[in-house]
Amino acid sequence: MRKTPDGLLRSEATRQRATFLELFLDLVFVFALTRISARLIADFTDGQRGAYAGLGQALLLFLALWAVWSLTVWSTSWLDPDAPIVQTVIIMTLVGAMTMAVAVPNGFGARAALFAITLVTLQIGRVVFFHVAGHGRPDPQQSIRVLFWFGLSAPLWVVGGLVNDGTVRGALWTLAVLTDYTGLLLGWPTPRLGAQRLGVQMIAAEHLAERYQQFLLIALGEAIFVIGLAFSGSEFHTDQTGGFVLALASTVLLWRIYFHVAGGMLGTAVDRSRNPARLATDMAFAHMVMIAGIVLTGVGFELFIAEPLGHLPATWLIAIFGGPVLFLAGRSALEYQVFGRVSRSRLAGLVAFGLLIPVALHLQPLTAGAVAAVVLLGVAAADARRSRHRSPETPTPPY
User: Fold this and answer.
1) Spatial separation of the C-alpha atoms in residues 295 and 372, rounded to whole Å
2) Which is deepest, 39, 269, 301, 337, by most CB within 10 Å?
3) Residue 203, phi then psi, degrees to nearest 5
4) More confident site: 40 or 389
């Protein structure tokens, strides 16, 4: 990382570890994930919205929150997080994200307008503030690019939040999410200015990698919160205790699978990449999929702890099996980004889940959860066996 005369940009002397203010911001997203989980649990159990409609709505709310967090992380991996202007933007993000989080339970109902208007105000407001307070530094064209794309999605968010028709709201917000993520993925291509990802000239790889790892741990912590809440509210029957132990073991397996080799080498991979900005962007999407999978897996934990025996509704497999499938899919993508290949054990795990769905439909919820845990255990065991018989790998990103 080269030194720079601009005090807003990171330099070689800038610390790589996340600041306490950044960690403080993460606490808001812990709360946000708990609200999303609570929505999903209600959708899978009370049937008011329906599992499929509720899942789609929760996904849109999650993607909006992830976009806020992801852009913040990119900014603090490119800019000096100790600079007063940057710290002010983080505090603005904290307040805005907390407001969005409290709106999540009714984010598609009475609080839709609050969620949407807060999102738009936050996304546009912090870019404008940074541009004005920083007198255009360090890259005035980048501010224009980002504002151009937020300007495209803002009407979709606001109108969607104000309409009374839930179907229209869902359609408008889906278009808004697609617009926001297309801009992020492509580097906000803008007429006359072209495209450029944040931090393309300078990026704190170690900091960015640590932030992704920290957010994944946040998701695992949220799953543990769901496990504890579900079991503490149960009758502590033997089957419920078994579900509690199974859920904890499954969470440990998710942690083990993530951090095995690739999950601990993100910073080195970004440093070695020929295109670090693209690789870091792709890593963001891989982590988004994994974290969505962990949240959904946590919902499955709640379901089989609360009602371990009896009939298994087919929709419950979306959480019990679908969560681990999303996690393994995102982890496979991350492994490719770090090493340029995907382990056969991860692909085998995905195939196993697909083949086991017809069988799982005839199982009890707790048994289905045990089957999912066995598949994860197989993946983790294959990782451990491969590590014993191979020398340590060096990250070789494909680009």
Assistant:
1) 15
2) 301
3) -145, 135
4) 40
The CATH classification number of 205-389 equals 1.20.1410
Q: Where are the domains of the chain?
A: 20-186, 205-389
Tokens (6 digits) for 153: 């999605």
pTM exceeds 0.85 for this model: yes
Give me the pLDDT at residue 171, please: 97
Least confident span in 157-171, 368-382, 385-399: 385-399
Q: Which residue matches tokens 């599992």? A: 51
From 274, 243, 259, select the one nearest 340 (Cα to Cα).
Answer: 274
User: Mean of the pLDDT values across residues 269-288?
Assistant: 90
Indicate the length of the chain as a whole number: 399
- C-alpha 288/C-alpha 166 separation (Å) is 25
Under a CB-based contact definition with an 8 Å cutoff, are residues 195 and 187 in contact?
yes
Nearest residue to 97 (alpha-carbon basis) of 171, 38, 24, 15 = 24
User: Distance between CA 70 and CA 281 in Å, rounded?
Assistant: 9
Query: Which two three-digit tokens encode residue 358?
Result: 């017809």
